[in-house]
Amino acid sequence: MKKTIFLLSFVLAIHLTMAQRTVYHHQPLKLFNQGKEMFLEGNYTGAQELLLQYVPVSSDRLLKEEAKYMIAVSSFYKGVENSGDRMKEFLDEYPESIYHHRLKFLIGSSHFDKKEWKLARFWFDQADLDYLIPAEQEEFSFRSAYANLQLGNREEAYRLFGLLSKNSRKYRDAGNFYAGYIDYSTGKYEAALSRFESLRNHPEFGEQVAFYSAQSTFFNNRLDEAVRLAESFLNSYPRSEHATEMYRILGNSLYRQGKTTTAIPYYENYFAATAQPLRGDAYFMGLSYVEARKYNEAVQMFQKAVGERDALTQNALLQIGQTRLKLGEKQQAQMAFEAASRDNFDPKVRETAMFNYALLAHETNFSVFSESITLFENFLKEFPASPYTDQVNDILAETFLTTKDYQAALAAINRISRPGRRILEAKQMVLFQLGAQEFINGDMNGAVQYFNNAIGMGDYDLKARNNSYYWRGEAHYRMGNYPNAASDFQVFTQKASPADENYAMGWYNLGYARFKQNQFSSAVAAFQQYVAAENNKSRIEFADAHNRIGDCYYYNRNFAEAERFYSVAAAANPAAADYAAYQKAFVMGLQRNYQGKVDALDDLMRRYPNSQYIDDALYEKSRALVMMNREGEAINVLQQLVSNYPNSALSSQAGIQLGQLYYNTGNYQNSITAYKNVISKFPGTDDAKTALLSLETVYSELNDIESYVNYANSLPGGMRITVSRQDSLTYLAAESVYMRGSKSEAESAMLRYLQSYPNGAYHTDANYYLGLIADGNGNKQQAASYFRKVADANSVKYLDDALIYLSAYEYNNGNLNQALADYSRLANSGRNQNSQQTGQMGIVRTQYRLGSYHEAARAATTLLANANLSPEVSAEARYLRGKSLQQVNEVEKAMEDFQLLAQDTRNVYGAEAQFILADTYYRWKSYDRAESQVKAFMQKGTPHQYWMARALIVLSDTYRAKGDEFQAKQYLESLKNNYKGAEADIQQMINERLSNL
């Protein structure tokens, strides 16, 4: 804006008279002279205003330089914030200026005033003292000395202060004081006291001199004199900022003189007045409190003594552990002993701390990363002659049974060259636990191997051996090895006591293993043993056993007994009585009680409208009605089945029956429609072929063979009237090659078949086998393309297998929408309960990954309503429901799921649930609940140590939130030293928190 006004004035000046122009040219010199005069008088504001007007209109180079110099210096003396920058700008413009020495001194002074010592010294070093006026030379020397002192250049500072103390009138006392201070700070206490002597009553330095004199005598270990001087200082300067240090000197000196009772009050004043006490004094104060039996106060002091890793910290940590033991706080004592045992500044401290740490880890079962085993082993290696050695050997055997890290325990046992019986008992139990862990993780082969090893040890631990038989049987059963499963369950039931928690279930599982082998009579005997042994009659298995007994009698054609046991099963578990009701109705039909069968099926459909057996019930009802010659009613029932359950495995058979019944009643057009529906909805299936053959009969009855031929010839090749013999032979030859195990040759044969007959009768079969071959070769993308053709063909024979493969493939490759469609189709059309559950579980997983949390939670709820879920599926569904509910802020409901999951920390969902519960309580600021949750988790233990580590980080955060930073730090240090995982996020979280602490 000023520039604009100036330019406008210049334009107007063209029109002025020559006389006016002459006056204008004399005006700049006047501005300069007046400005310089004000500058010399110290009127820097006025000088700056005039000189700023002068510079733009001046053409005199020398005067203009001087004016700019005075403007820059005026800024400094006015205290303008960026005055240093203005002087630097002048030097940039006039590097050879005669004023540069003074300006560099003033620039240095501007940084000095801002306590920018490094920059101040830089500029002072460039100024020549000889070019400054005497007053400035004295100021220069002091400021340069002080800046060097602040930068730690004590030697140069000491030289300059020494010169000032001899030659300067203004800074003589200051030079003497700061030179004395440097003597003090470099440990030359006698020299410092000599300099301070002349300043003892100085109005400016007297207090500081008294303070440094007391400190100097204290540091010289003249304790009596230090006490006298400190007391004198407090009497003279009770409100001094140095009073706190005097209390420290008094407390420290008196403690070292053995006067702990007298020292405590002075120390208490010291600690009350400082936020950062010296660690050594905190340690002395802690020892003083221990002598006074003030243990809580002692712990607080010892915690203040903990700092960098050194001997003092190690001793303080040992004292914390021993004091915590006096307070009965074993867990906190253990953490302190652990921290003290990490270093070896004092070997005796390390030995004592390591033993106490290991002992407490064993006694409290507080060893989440199996520290107790390695601790005892390391202790014996490092201190073989320790007085604690015998005690350690006795404890070590017991420790193997209390650890949760069984791999570490087994490795430790195997390192013992001559194990005794107690160690071998522990080993057998450890092997069993490892097998159980592999079982939980779904590795049945690994589980069997560990159970084999446990059983092979013999009878050291009978419970471990018997449980190994039981769970090995479970593993064999899961792998479909029913003979081996039956053998193991048989041995278990013979060897285990009836009081064993798994005794009844051993009989139940034995029954199933025999049932799966069609050994129905022996299965009945086992199930009946279970029924007799089971004390909890409300268990699902109790009702299920009666259903299986009924099934066994049914297969042995003892229909009366079958019906009786189905009735007992229904009464035992009304919530799952639909199967028993269905089987009971079916048995009535076998006994030719068709009306009873119809009534029973109607009762089932009325009482259980959502039962999975509704489509079966409708189909069987139609068959019973036909047997009673009530074909019109049967037609209505079949129409209901076909309409309401189009994806049922029975839909195609119902369609054929419907066509037959329409034909029997003379309703040929409806018969044709029914058969055609089967052909169009289930192309390529045996039922479709049957429908086409039946359709020929209907058209023949109508004497309309031409329409039949036209229709049949319009269908794909596999649906024509007569399947090509060459088509059949080509496929069957390829299938024969596959069955012989020649996969590569079979692949070529199947491809040739599809090239010749792309819509042949067996094109679905060929694509299915090609999918299996591609998957076996590791080409999952190609396999998926073949299975997709199978699924698109809607072949009931292979549909479940194809959808199971495709849904998993799409899910794993991130094609979530397609995966969801495949899982949904599997859940709705699966031919058995396992397939349907696989689809339902897939829906839950996929909806969760898609971020459709409401849908994921609803799908999980639907799945969990099924009483026949495996524990693994149930745990995952509950976990995903809890996580989904968290995402939609239904945290209270989510917590219910996590609380149930957290009961079993052997699986990863339970371990993570423990962490989630603790973390949620922490976020709710329910710190006591968070602490209790983590400690309970630590007592339970888990093989999934990542989540244990995350929980311990929450515990550290909790302690910090509660103001206990020492405990917070110790848990982090313990985690850092004992956690064996390599996850980067754990280390990052630990390091970030430690740096903040």
From TrEMBL:
This is Tetratricopeptide repeat protein. PROSITE patterns: TPR (PS50005). The keyword Nucleotidyltransferase does not apply. It comes from Petrimonas mucosa. Pfam families: TPR_16, TPR_6. Residues 1-19 form the signal peptide. TPR repeats lie at residues 504-537, 543-576, 652-685. The keyword Signal applies. Keywords: Signal, TPR repeat.
